[in-house]
Design brief:
Order of helices and strands: EHEEHEHEE
CATH architecture: 3-Layer(aba) Sandwich
Structural class: alpha+beta
Number of strands: 6
Shape: globular
Bound molecules: tetrahydrodeoxyuridine
Distance between the termini: 28 Å
Helix content: 25-40%
Number of domains: 1
Length: about 160
């Protein structure tokens, strides 16, 4: 018997202006896009911005539905759009910003489990890691160097 430890290394920036300029720009796009989220049921707005290999930035938001389970998360919206617009092109980074209309979120919200699986699928299909940049409405910024780190013991196509 042996124990194995899976780690998720996170770099913490107490102030967003400590970020590299490119990361600041991507996060700013996620924050701006977040305001357009369609989230009338939860009041939880999420903006996601993807930096493509060619330098283009795409963004998306969560998109809720009166039939709740049909809701699409922001991360999944932007990664699907990235794959349609630039098939096979690596996504270099993904910034995610959240805002709760009922309370100020002062720390980053990590992507849900389903989104982690979609981020990982995108990494595998493009054979390129995605730097994940997280921030709440205010407060510190977390950077996780590869989406894979957010999903220990991940399921992937090698099982199929
Ligand atoms: N949501 C996202 O967009 N991304 C996540 O990773 C977590 C949750 C959305 C879905 C729903 O519209 C709202 O946040 C509350 O769950």
């Amino acid at each position: 018997m042996r124990k194995q430890l899976f780690k998720c290394p996170v770099t913490v920036f107490d102030l967003p202006d400590e970020l590299a300029p490119g990361d600041q720009a991507l996060l700013a796009l996620a924050r701006q896009t977040r305001e357009d989220a369609y989230a009338p049921y939860s009041g939880f707005k999420v903006g996601a911005a993807a930096l493509m290999e060619n330098g283009e930035m795409l963004s998306g938001t969560n998109y809720e539905n009166a039939s709740y389970p049909l809701t699409i998360c922001a991360e999944q919206a932007v990664l699907a759009a990235a794959s349609s617009r630039f098939p096979g092109m690596a996504v270099r980074a993904l910034a995610i910003s959240v805002k709760n209309l009922k309370q100020v979120i002062a720390h980053p919200a990590a992507p849900c489990g389903a989104c982690r699986q979609v981020i990982y699928e995108t990494e595998r299909k493009n054979d390129a890691g995605i730097r994940v940049i997280l921030q709440g409405e205010t407060g510190p910024v977390y950077i996780i160097e590869r989406g894979r780190d957010l999903l220990p013991l991940a399921f992937d196509e090698t099982y199929l």
